[in-house]
Specification:
about 350 residues, alpha+beta, eight-stranded mixed beta sheet, 8 strands, DNA-binding, iron, Adenine DNA glycosylase, iron-sulfur
Length: about 350
DNA sequence: AACACGGGGTG
DNA sequence: CACCCAGTGTT
């Protein structure tokens, strides 16, 4: 038996949970109901629902013949209602195809609606003491740390490795205690954030701990590259002042002052003339600036312009700002950066 | 406001 | 197999 399994069983006997309502039985139906309720739902939330559900639907037959509304009422407040619909549906399948007896064959268990490999394994172990392993999110985290498995566990290749690893660690004795320990250990000690490594009996086995990579494992889901957008900002100058535009309240930098943006495919000098009635000429380019938001990256091309001739009258959302004005402190970061760059250039 | 999650569904 | 979804809690 693996050292991990030995230690986990010992840990479970001291720190694990032994007194939960569904742990007092080997009735596959009771185990099944509890496992479905426990999917993505904490033990504390499940306890009351489990008691009321089992009191109202004590057998597979009673569940199968109950009206769906009745089943849903007993699920009301637990969330993920497709679980209840699948449970009801599978109860009817068991009545129809298995003579009302919960199947012991692993493939048959797994083919029931709402039961995947992990839930099928839990029922197999707790009800029938068959050698199967679970692999839910908690267990993935525990095993990824134990063997320092790199890569996001949602990747098929990584998940396959974790299943193989989980199988290889299974003990021959005390299987239910081991599986329960796997669940409880991941839920209470080897947690995603702030795992209690100082209290952990697996320090000697845990490769992530020894490599000081506990906080980095399991690897998080690679987020897709955020989209990139491009804008050109007009920096129109005249007599030591620069033109600013108040942005619409909606959207990025809502209500803040910024440089007027050049419409895509517009030529800056032409836009200055057509939209603002300004005669202007281009000045020397400034370097392109990147700014990262939560959901996109913005490439900002600054276009310094010099006003020629007299200033036109301006609507309220446009105004001239002295280059050294204190208002600059309240501008969006990239705008302030551009102003600073401008001041350091020869203009 | 993004991430995490077990199972289902689709191509 | 690859990919995405629904629905709820957590960070």
């Amino acid at each position: 038996m693996s050292v991990f399994a030995e230690k986990l069983i010992a840990w479970q006997q001291v720190h694990g949970r032994h007194d939960l309502p569904w742990q007092q039985t080997r009735d596959p139906y009771a185990v099944w109901v509890s496992e479905i309720m426990l999917q993505q739902t904490q033990v504390s939330a499940v306890i009351g629902y489990y008691g009321r559900f089992m009191a109202r639907f004590p057998t597979i037959a009673s569940l199968a013949e109950a009206p769906q509304d009745d089943v849903m009422q007993h699920w009301s407040g637990l969330g993920y209602y497709s679980r209840a619909r699948n449970l009801h549906h599978a109860a009817q399948t068991i009545m129809r195809e298995h003579g009302g007896i919960f199947p012991q064959d692993f493939a048959q268990i797994q083919s029931l609606k709402g039961i995947g490999r992990s839930t099928a394994a839990a029922v197999s172990v707790f009800a029938f003491q068959q050698p199967q392993t679970i692999l839910d999110g908690n267990v993935k985290r525990v095993l990824a740390r134990l063997h320092a498995v790199d890569g996001w566990p949602g990747l098929p290749l990584i998940e396959k490795r974790l299943w193989v690893l989980a199988e290889s660690l299974l003990p021959e004795k005390n299987l239910p205690a081991y599986i329960q320990g796997l669940m409880d250990f991941g839920a209470t000690l080897c947690t995603r954030s702030k795992p209690r490594c100082q209290d952990c009996p697996m320090q000697g086995e845990c490769q992530a701990f020894q490599q000081q990579r506990v906080a980095q494992l399991p690897a998080s889901k690679p987020r897709k590259a955020i989209p990139e957008r491009q804008t050109t900002m007009l920096m129109i100058m005249d007599a030591g002042e620069i033109l600013l535009e108040k942005r619409p309240d909606k959207g990025i930098w809502g209500g803040l002052w910024s440089f007027p943006e050049c419409k895509p495919d517009q030529i800056p000098v032409q836009q200055a003339e057509q939209r603002y009635g300004m005669q202007a000429e281009s000045l020397e380019d400034l370097p392109v600036l990147w700014h990262t938001f939560t959901h996109f990256k913005l490439e900002i091309t600054p276009q310094p312009l010099q006003l020629i001739g007299k200033r036109p009258g301006l609507p309220q959302h446009l105004q001239w700002l002295p280059l050294n004005d204190a208002i600059a402190a309240a501008l969006p970061t990239p705008v302030r950066t551009l102003l600073k760059t401008l001041q350091q250039s020869r203009y």
